Every structure is written in structure tokens, then in C-alpha cells.
Amino acid sequence: MNPLTFAVIGGDMRQAKLASLLAADGHAVSVFALEQAQPERAMIADSLNAAGKGADCVVLPLPLLRDGTALHTPLSDMVLTLDAVFTALKPHQILCGGRIPEIAQKQAVERGLLLVDYFNREELVIANAVATAEGAIQVAMQSTSTILLGTRVLILGFGRIGKVLAHRLRALGVSVTVSGWSLEDLAWIQAYGYKGIRSDRLDGALGGYDILFNTIPHLMLNAERLRTIDRDTLCIDLSSQPGGIDFAAAADLGLKTIHALGLPGEAAPLTAAAIIRDTIYNILSEQGIPLC
Amino acid sequence: MNPLTFAVIGGDMRQAKLASLLAADGHAVSVFALEQAQPERAMIADSLNAAGKGADCVVLPLPLLRDGTALHTPLSDMVLTLDAVFTALKPHQILCGGRIPEIAQKQAVERGLLLVDYFNREELVIANAVATAEGAIQVAMQSTSTILLGTRVLILGFGRIGKVLAHRLRALGVSVTVSGWSLEDLAWIQAYGYKGIRSDRLDGALGGYDILFNTIPHLMLNAERLRTIDRDTLCIDLSSQPGGIDFAAAADLGLKTIHALGLPGEAAPLTAAAIIRDTIYNILSEQGIPLC
Amino acid sequence: MNPLTFAVIGGDMRQAKLASLLAADGHAVSVFALEQAQPERAMIADSLNAAGKGADCVVLPLPLLRDGTALHTPLSDMVLTLDAVFTALKPHQILCGGRIPEIAQKQAVERGLLLVDYFNREELVIANAVATAEGAIQVAMQSTSTILLGTRVLILGFGRIGKVLAHRLRALGVSVTVSGWSLEDLAWIQAYGYKGIRSDRLDGALGGYDILFNTIPHLMLNAERLRTIDRDTLCIDLSSQPGGIDFAAAADLGLKTIHALGLPGEAAPLTAAAIIRDTIYNILSEQGIPLC
Amino acid sequence: MNPLTFAVIGGDMRQAKLASLLAADGHAVSVFALEQAQPERAMIADSLNAAGKGADCVVLPLPLLRDGTALHTPLSDMVLTLDAVFTALKPHQILCGGRIPEIAQKQAVERGLLLVDYFNREELVIANAVATAEGAIQVAMQSTSTILLGTRVLILGFGRIGKVLAHRLRALGVSVTVSGWSLEDLAWIQAYGYKGIRSDRLDGALGGYDILFNTIPHLMLNAERLRTIDRDTLCIDLSSQPGGIDFAAAADLGLKTIHALGLPGEAAPLTAAAIIRDTIYNILSEQGIPLC
To answer: What is the pTM of this model?
Structure first.
């Protein structure tokens, strides 16, 4: 591995662990605004300037901002404006952050800084889907008083998470049904040996399952549909806020629901950090910076 | 289902849930010494006599006794001697309990009572191994900061739990190595596509794993062997007390260990109850009592 | 199933079996130019006009034409020009054929006929990939003197066939490596637990495999690369003519190669016919013709 | 590998390939009565004495005898009596043969020769079951016009072959039902996620399957039961002669049956030879002859 210099500024436990992983790979790593985490092996910088100076790559948080202007720094008492961060950096440095708002990207361009969104990268999104699917299985195991073997599970959606989740559940002896929007989806669902159902024909087809996972970021389970679900079906929503379940209606009906958000960071923070690391390596490699 | 009359006397949450499951199958169920659980659908009896009277089958706890003489009644304030229980019952009734000591069996015989140990039944032990294996995966997921995909796992022992655990882990994308005592075990390990290692050749072969599961009820991991395990390997012991790991030595070495006991009841109490129900149905069927 | 009237004109065993399958579903089916097959349950028509007259749907061969002008009729001595076929049909009928050349499509449009290519449909292509993957495993089993368990297999390409083939081989205990072009492909390859390799970095990485499957329709294995393959590696090419292996160079090197073409029809003709049937049902359904 | 001297006398292609495998491991190997095979790397001996002289281990055929007295030598024109073979050997040599009749064992003992039956060894029988299961899948693929995905398969018997066959078929997306004799078997069948059926309750339960594999060496499918099987069910018998199907009755009913015998040697002769080699190594190791 060709040793580089990294600065990790702000972020949550994923960025803290990322700093340690980068250092473990032999890179020089300085951190700033992560003082509540104390990442192993990394040097703690005194200032933004000290952290950023000389860094080949500057790693910024995911999400980048806590509100419109300040960096996301949940492990620090400091308030860092994006402006202050950008001021401390130079155009030859590569900046990597996650969920970058358009306005921030615009500011970077105006200053001649290269700001890359690692959360936009397909390889990260797929790897996160794997971590989400495993986390979803952990949540299901923790939240039921039965084993998974022999249970009947319905997964709404055959996107990235649905694909991995179905694969793992079937391997655990679950009877898996997946809903898909297109004939193409349904052909793949059949190819892997799952039962398939059209996502636009779910009305009247939601009974008879022990667990129901939603992966679709639309209101899939409204009050009317929730009424057709068995009383003891566990509903786990994996789609991001506001989710695909009418949680209030579900509570009224006495249905057990879980909105499992941010599973990669929750259930597997070290893997989540390693995924960001691998993606940043890919970004650097594409920018002509050899890592090995 | 041919409706019968059951009495469930004492026991923990498994027996409480069992009472509900039996009632849900249409049987008449009365319970005693389970007052902290209030099992749904079951009738609460006023006395041992009221509970036992007329029952075709009397379900006793697992383990049967809390000490040498009193029934295991963790969900009750009552103290019931085995003698008192036996006095309330009649020879034509079938008694089922778990982990029955020889002395208790002898007393039953003297009174002409048929006392069958459901924990001795192979079908129950296998089904419990399945629940234990799933529970072990849940414990591993909860206790690591990574996902299971791509991890390297060593399972000590290819008995019932080792067989199911290896099967499920490989399905989750884990690189599975299993230790077996005999050439027969190793042939099976290979047949299922796992890596194999002789259980008598573990010295010097314990490095390089992320997780190590022990299923063998002997001291497999003594201080000397523990010293050869990687510092960040998680050791999960699934064997019953006192377990197969020198936990004190492991703590001195800074190794992370977990002794996961009673996983079926812990992680999947409803499944644990259903397993006992199915086994009791088998026992009744073999005693000539038709259930359907 | 809402009974319709079908005409199946020309084609190979797949169309012949398709005629039987359609009849088995309750439809009225007449066949023409399939006289060497004698499909069960179908009526044999005397003429193109008799066959086509009154048919809601006319099924044409895959590929549609044997040369530029005549219908593909390997199971018949007749020569049918496309012109003659089109003349026998009416605009309200739905025509389905496979691999339709542009010129044929143009002719249909000029006559006001609706001609749909079922071989263009994604659900058919995916289902065919499944049949191809299973067929490839059969070919590998037949062509080796070892079992698949424990063998090391490299699959070039992670398209439809690569995806299904990798899935099935891993399930059979094979050590599976897959090459992919993009970081996205490689992320998916890892997500399913296979080893991954960049398709643009295959030079020097082709040794150490027992079987090598090519699914990429480019010259992946030229003479130079073939020289780096182990002498006893079996090379199976699943890509369509001219394939991705320099077969002459492979023969010179003494390498064992197989070009497995048309596997769905070869290894599983009934499944191949059922796939076409399902696709035609989808086409009809999208044209507003209800089947059930 | 500690180089030894082997003599391989008689046998079929498995013994011929075994000779090559032993030589490839660095051992000195002489062969006799295998002249139609010409195994690579092995020395062809002129006489029984020349072959056997100085051999640490003498490998004899499987089965040992062609009839009561002569060695099984299908790849040779020679007739070798067991007596002649034994006369050429010395007590310090280890003799390994397969399916050794009692009378042959008695003769060996009388001459002070150690004759070990490698076909009796559990590790060989299990590894053969794996090869049989894979071969059975190959036979099924070759003998049907459909793919396996989505088919419904019944396996009679959950012994070694049944276990591996069920495992592989489920992995290929087959809906697997297995019959078992005991509650223990049925618990294992359930543990792996297959459907189970009692082997003593098969009457009236044999309909609705696409393929039926028999692994039980008893007449499981008599005329009466065959009458209840679907007309297009393929019946594959994997049990040794005379098999478990009334083949004459099946032919009368128009059922398609296959009696697949000797699959390891048929479908995977090199694996079959490697299995014997590994077993002989185990035998030698247990006799105190170190191989590495």
C-alpha cells in the first residue's frame, strides 16, 4: 500500500473507525472534531489548518452537514462551518463527503476544490445494502419469539436490499415471497427460487405472513392494507424517513412495527467504516492517486 | 385434532407458552404454579388436585426439580414437593417432564405413575439444536461490529449444533471451518463444503479466525490454546455448564468471550414451547393416545 | 384461463412443444409447417390460411427466418416465404416471432400487422439465462471425470447467465470466482460471497482453475491468454457465435474446450417452450387480451 | 509425502486412475492385470511376483472377486486366482481390497496376510454418497426436458445419499420432500428446511412430484404404489441391485424409470479413484505407516 496522508474532520463513529482503519493500512491520519471518539492510531490535530494541511485526501462526514451550514460533528462540541473547512483546504487536495447538498457542491466548485460524494457511489450503496440486509435479519431475530426456519416472509421491493435480504433469508430456511414492480423483477425473483407477487397487486395478498419487510420508500402499507395483515405479523420497515408504513394506523390496529434506520452504522459500524474506506480508495484511484 | 385434557404444573416461560399452544390446538388446559405468567387461553387451577384431576397428560417442568425435592417453579411463589405432585395424580395419567433425576423416576415407578422425560427425546434435542444454532448467529451478530459475510469462523465440534450452525453460517457467506473427531465427521464436513480440521490437532491451528464457536462440553480452549487465538477473535461457547472455555484465562488475555446458555428459551421461547408440544404429542401417540 | 385461438406456424421443437402447452391450457391451437413433430393436442392445419384464419395470436419461429426471406421451418419440408405468411393474416391478429430482422418488421408495419419480438423481452431473456446456467452445469458434469464439489471455477462475466451460474455453482460447493467490468459488478459479486476479479485485469490471473466458463460475447480468451491456463482446465464457452475463445489456438495447446450453444432448447426444450408461452401471455396481456 | 511402494493388481478404471494418482503423489507404483488401461506414470510389471515384490501396500480390486475364486480383472485378459495372488505376497505387506467375501478374508488370515476392506470404511462410503448424489443430479438433468428449478422432488430415504442429494437439490431451487423412518430423521429433515414424510405412510402420498429418487434398498415402489404415481413422474433408483422399484410393473404402467448404478465410477471416475486413494492413506496411517 502506497502510504498517503489523510485528514478526517467531523462525522460519527463510522468516520472515527475509518480513521483507525486508514492508519492500520499504513497511512498518516490526523483527525479533528472527533474528540469524543479518540480513534486508535490517529493523530489528533489542534486545528482545522493543522489537520488539513498536507493531506492528500480530506474525509468529511456522512451526512456532510447537520443543518444548512455547519458540518455534521456529533462526536465533538465544536461548531465548524463549511466555509471554515473549505478555507483551510487547497485545490490539490481531494475532499470526500457523504450526502453533499447542491449548495455545498457549488461552494466547493467556486473555490476550485474537488468535492466527491462517496454516498453517491454504487459500490458503497450495494455494500451498505448487504449490511442493511444482515442487520434486518438481526432485528427480526431479536424481535420475534420464534426461530426464522420455516417462517413465511414477504419482502416488498426487489431493489438492492430486497435482493440480498431474500438471498440470506432463503438460506436460513425461510419461505420467501418478494414483490416486484416489473416482469423483469419477477423473472429474477423466480430465477432465484423465491415466490413472486406483483407490487401493484398487493391488495388482498398481505395475509399469511409471519414477517413483512418493506424496502420501498413509498407509503406501501397504508391503513387500509394494514387492516388485511395478520394480527401477529411483525412489520419491519427498512426504507428511509418517512418510511413506507403508516405507523400511527399500525399502532391503532395493534400491529407490531419497527422502523429500522441506519442499520449499517447501527449493527455493523466497523463494516460501515470499511465500506467508506474502500470507496474512498476507489475515488483516489480514479483521480490518479495510486494506492498500491 | 382429538381434544384432550392437559395440566401444566410449574416451569418457566416455555411451559407457560406451551399451555397457550395446547389450548390453541383445542385442548382443555389447566395450569398451576405459573401465576406470574398468566398464559392465555388456559384455566388457572386452584390446587394441585384441581389441576391434575382428569388430565390425560400432566406436563411438568424442564428441569423437573429446582433442587433435590421441589418442583422447578420460577414463575410461582409456591413450593411444591415432587411428593405432593405425585400424590395428586393417578396411574392412568401420562406425566411428561424434562431432565428427570433417577430418584424421581424411581418414586414415580413405585407409585405406578408413567413419567416420561421429553428432554431425552432425539427429535426434541435436534429441534433444540436448530434453535440454538439460530440463537448463536443472533448472539454473534449482536456482539460484533462487522457483518458476517466474509468472516472466517471456526466451529469446534460437528454434533447436532455444529451441523446446523455450519449449514446456516455458510449460507450467510461465512468461510466455515469445522473440527471433527473422526474420519467419518471429516468426510461429512467435506461433503457439505466446509473446511475440516481434526479435533485432536487443534494446537497451533486456532489463529486466523474472526469468530470461534465451541459446541463441545469439554475444556477445549484452555489457557495454553487461548494464547494462540487472535486478540480480536470473538469466542462464543454454546456448550452447557461449565462450558469448554477457561473463561478466567480468557479474561486475563483480554479475549472477548460469551457463554451463551439456554438459547432456545432465551432467543426463541415460542419455538422452544412448540418443540416441547410436538414432542409431547409424539409421546402420547406412542402411548396409544390418538391426537388426530 | 380465458380460451383463445392460436396458430403456431413453423419453428423447431420449442414451437412444437409450445403448441402442446397452449392446448393443455385450454386454448384452440392449430399448427402448420411442423409436420415432423406432430405436437400433441394441436390440430394440424391444411394450409397457411386455414391455420391463421381466426387466430387471436399467431406464433412464428425463433429465429423468424432461415435466410433473408423464408420462415425458419426445420421440422417441415415446406418453404414458406414471409410474404406468403403475412398475406394469410389480418391486422387484428397479434403476431409473435423471435429475432425479427428490421426488414421483416418493416414489411409487417406496411401491411398494418402487429409483429412483436418475444426474444427481445427481458423476462424471456432472464428465464433463458436460468435454463442456460443449468444446462452449463449439466455440460460441466458430463465433461469432467470429477465431481463439482470442491472444484475451483472462474466465470467470465456477471451478466444474466453469470449471475445465475455463480449462484448455482456455489450452492453445489464450488469455489466460485467471477470477473466483472465495473466496481458495481464487483460489489455485487462480493455481496453474494463469490471471489471477484476485474475483467480488465485477467492477464496472468487465469491459472489455478478446474473449469472456466465464458459468458462474454467478445474474444476473452485469445491465444496469449490460453497459454496461461492450466493444461487440464476445461473451458466452456456459453457466449453466442463466434464465442469468446480462440478455439483453434486452444486445440493447438491441447486444451479441452466446449462451445455450448442454444442450451435452453438443447437441455430443456419443454422449459424453453414454457418460457416462450409465458412471454406470449405477457405480450397478449399488455395488448389488452385477458387470459384469466 | 513419504514415498512408498505400491502394487495395483487388477480392477477397473478406478484402480487404473488410482495407480496414476498414487504415482503423481511421488510413490513408486507398479501395476499388473490392468493392461487395457495403461495408467500414466505407473510401471507395468511382468508378473504377479514382480508387481507385489517389495510393495508396502498392495491394492486389490473393488469388488475383490469376479466369481468365487478369480480376481476382478475387467481390464485384463488374464485370469488370476486369489490363491495365486496371495502366494506372491508376504505378511509384512498391507493388502487393501473392496467388498471382500468372508472366505477370502479367511484365506488371508490363514496365510498371515493383513487384508483390509476399503469399501467398509465410513469415510469412503460418505464420499461415495457425495459422488452418487452429484451423479444422480446429472442423470436427472439428462433425462428430463425441463430445468430443475421449481420442480417438485421426492427422495425416499434420508441415509447418506438422501442427505447429500436433498442438500444439493434444494440449493438448485427444487422443492424437496424427503421420507424418513424415524422421528429423528424427520427432525433433521425439518432442520434443513425440507418437507418431511414418514416412510411408513407413503401410501397415497406419492402423487404430485416431477421426479422421485429412491435410495432405500427395499421394494419401496411396488406395483400398487406405482399406480398412484403421476404418469410423467421420472423415477430414478439409486439403490443397489435389485433396487427398490418393480421395474416390470413400472414399464407396464408406462412410467419412465432409470436404475442408476455405480454412479461414482460412471459419472466421476477420477473422484472415485481419489476417494479410494484417500481411504488407503488413512488405512496405512492407522497401521503405523506415515505418509507425511
So the answer is: 0.96
